[in-house]
Amino acid sequence: MKILLIEDELPAARQLSKMLNSARPNFQILDALDSVESAVRWLRNFPAPDLIFMDIQIADGLSFDIFRQIELKSPVIFTTAFDHYAVQAFKVNAIDYLLKPIDPEDLLRALERFENQRSAPAFDYESIARYFQNERYKDRFLVKNGQHFSFVQTTDIAYLRSSDGLTQAYCQNGKKYFIDHTLEELERLLDPRAFFRVSRNMTLQVNAIQKIHPYLNGRLKLDIEPVAPEDVVVSRERVGEFKAWLGG
């Protein structure tokens, strides 16, 4: 069985390769590609693989652009960092998907579904592509400034902190503003490449991190700027995902 990976995050590609080798040692991973351009070039020049694992957001756009440029007959298992609300689009269209970080049991189930199918499902790529193209990340937030309203650019936010049911955005210039969204909602609204939820009550922008220290029980302690009201600690369960996120 010949497998092609289309994934622009090197740690994620390595981890998926390792999991596939463990789950199906007889599978051959042909290549790992990181862009629409390289994938189209590869698929035009080599025989179609038996199965493709394809991330949705890759280096030069959405992987759905591949389908507009070539006729792809290989079955596809998508991988995505979008939350479960976005994943509903896949369920409607009967597409196999894996939610990042990939769980080994989810991978096994997806492989079993693939192996039990006699033919690739008819995917409605266009409608799903439209869904994700409409899924825009917020680039600014409306905030109240005294008796007036203004807006804060997302790129100016160092971190977001939840306390007593309220969410505040702490900006790089030291100012802070209340935001009308929970951290759960912000996980969908913010670009996951730039923001990571390190704990139940805090989401960090990557540029806010100044130093990373080993901490008790396999955790990590972060020095951030501006300084947070309490210690910023990444739980042991999230350390692996946090390191993969930092690696881009």
Task: Give the helix tally.
Answer: 8
CATH level 1 name of the largest domain:
Alpha Beta
CATH homologous superfamily label of the largest domain: Response regulator
Q: Per DSSP, what share of the residues sits in E-state strands of 2 or more residues?
A: 25-35%
Biggest pleated sheet: 5 strands, parallel
Features:
alpha/beta; 2 domains; Rossmann fold; 31% helix; 248 residues
Please render the helix and strand layout as text.
Blueprint: E1 2-6, H1 10-23, E2 28-33, H2 36-45, E3 51-55, E4 57-58, E5 61-62, H3 65-69, E6 76-80, H4 84-92, E7 97-99, H5 104-116, H6 125-133, E8 140-145, E9 148-153, E10 157-163, E11 166-171, E12 176-179, H7 183-189, E13 195-199, E14 202-205, E15 209-214, E16 220-224, E17 232-234, H8 236-246
Parallel strand pairs: 1-2, 1-3, 3-6, 6-7
Antiparallel strand pairs: 4-5, 8-9, 10-11, 10-14, 11-12, 13-14, 15-16, 16-17
Could you explain how this protein is built, in words?
The chain has eight helices and 17 strands. It has 248 residues and is of the alpha/beta class. The protein has two domains: 2-133, Rossmann fold; 140-246, OB fold (Dihydrolipoamide Acetyltransferase, E2P) (Beta Barrel). It has a five-stranded parallel beta sheet with strand order 2-1-3-6-7, sandwiched between helices. The chain has a five-stranded antiparallel beta sheet with strand order 12-11-10-14-13. It starts with a strand and ends with a helix. The model has no long low-confidence stretch (mean pLDDT 86).
